[in-house]
Write a structure and sequence with these properties.
Layout (H helix, E strand, L loop, with lengths): L1 E6 L2 E8 L20 E9 L4 E12 L2 E6 L5 E5 L13 H7 L11 E4 L18 E6 L6 E5 L7 E6 L9 E7 L15 E3 L1 E4 L16 H8 L8 E7 L2 E6 L9 E6 L4 E7 L9 E6 L5 E5 L10 E5 L5 E6 L7 E2 L2 E2 H7 L2 E6 L5 E6 L4 E6 L8
Antiparallel strand pairs: 1-2, 2-3, 3-4, 5-6, 6-7, 8-9, 9-10, 10-11, 11-13, 12-17, 14-15, 15-16, 16-17, 18-19, 19-20, 20-21, 22-23, 24-25, 25-26
């Protein structure tokens, strides 16, 4: 989720729906890309009245829209975390098809879509940005380059998309994957604060989402690895500020409890700034965003025991964490056959973002699917 506009006291957000299945789209079928159930909702929140004043579907017929990012020109990039190509469905897809429930899909998936707040009647995937397990996206406003993460195991890529025309992503461009010379894998044993020079390798066929002869969803990452790119694991959120891209690896590290990296895009240098020491504390760093004051705020998607509420935390310049809020709602009913209270306590935060003035923080609770608008007072330095 992200803030795509603000006018007077009204804040406009676009929120993803990480929905699977192919039994029909949310919203109007006439505006849908496919029969699948993913998409986005546009929300308008009035900060003066402290209430939601509008909500409508702005993208539908997509699949498993996990994360994405706000563009400098006020749109939302919604990313599908689900490479799927109908004509290849007979190549070893039977088990995955039953699990994901998208056997009736008529069109390919696993792409990025640009969403305008009002929505469009004819959504179009940006195929040049690749068909893979997309997670998040962040744009360098100075160059128009889009940086993207991939959420898959055991090997995931960090990508960048160099558009032919900055700001016009559908006009085409080049997709590349990051390479750290001498480091074919960056999932374990990366020393804290050590700096590594980086390079980029071209992905010759960004629309080839599967290894030839299969439907494995590894077509893009394997092209990168074959060209010498470096493998991360389970990359999640990313955010860019003042020439530095920060991104998370949910299972990175010795304890497989999570990494946070910093990439200096001007100097082309990579540094590990945080490693979760164990799974019994804060772990599984996921979505992240900068507050207007420059503080990095991180959503927890805990990878250890989920017997207590998860946290939204702030990461200090000294790479220390302090808690902003914790999941602990008293909810009733059922969600996917489980009591809502138990599900909510174990549920992850997602889509954290701020109003431009920093007075309001918005965040989603993945299950049961609730968006919160939270206001201060905030800790010093947050806004």
């Amino acid at each position: 989720m992200g803030v795509v506009g603000a006018r007077d006291t009204r804040i406009t957000l676009v929120r993803n729906h990480e929905r699977r299945g192919s039994d029909g789209p949310i919203g109007d079928p006439a505006t849908a890309w496919d029969v699948t159930g993913g998409g986005t909702t546009t929300l308008v929140f009035d900060t003066r009245d402290e209430r939601l004043v509008d909500s409508h579907i702005s993208l539908n017929g997509t699949l498993n829209n996990c994360a994405g990012g706000v563009t400098p020109w006020g749109t939302w990039l919604s990313c599908e975390e689900a490479p799927y190509t109908p004509e290849l469905a007979h190549h070893g897809l039977e088990t995955r098809q039953r699990h994901w429930g998208h056997g009736k899909a008529r069109r390919p998936h696993g792409f990025v879509y640009e969403v305008h707040a009002a929505g469009e009647r004819s959504p179009r995937p940006i195929e040049a940005m690749g068909q893979f397990y997309h997670e998040a996206a962040a744009i360098d406003a100075r160059t128009g380059i889009v940086y993207m993460t991939e959420d898959r195991t055991p090997a995931a890529g960090l990508y960048r998309y160099l558009p032919e025309v900055p700001g016009q992503l559908l006009a085409g461009g080049r997709l590349q994957m990051l390479r750290v010379p001498g480091r074919p894998a960056l999932d374990r044993e990366v020393p804290l604060q050590s700096e590594f020079p980086v390079e980029w390798v071209d992905i010759p066929e960004p629309g080839r989402g599967h290894t030839p002869g299969t439907h494995d969803g590894q077509g893009v990452v394997r092209q990168g690895l074959a060209a010498g790119a470096s493998a991360f694991i389970a990359l999640e959120g990313c955010a860019l500020r003042e020439g530095r891209l920060y991104f998370t690896s949910k299972y990175g590290g010795a304890a497989q409890a999570g990494y946070i990296f910093e990439l200096d895009v001007d100097r082309q240098a990579l540094r590990l700034i945080f490693e979760a020491p164990a799974r019994n504390g804060f772990s599984g760093p996921d979505n992240l965003v900068f507050s207007p004051g420059g503080t990095l705020v991180v959503c927890e998607d805990r990878v250890g025991l989920r017997t207590a509420g998860q946290y939204l935390v702030a990461l200090t310049p000294d790479a220390e964490l302090f808690a902003l809020c914790r999941v602990n709602p008293d909810l009733r009913g059922q969600y996917l056959g489980h009591p809502l209270r138990d599900t909510a306590l174990s549920s992850e935060w997602a889509g954290v973002c701020f109003s431009p003035d920093g007075a309001w923080m918005f965040a989603n609770l993945y299950a049961p699917g609730v968006t919160f608008a939270i206001t201060g007072p905030w800790p010093p330095g947050l806004v």
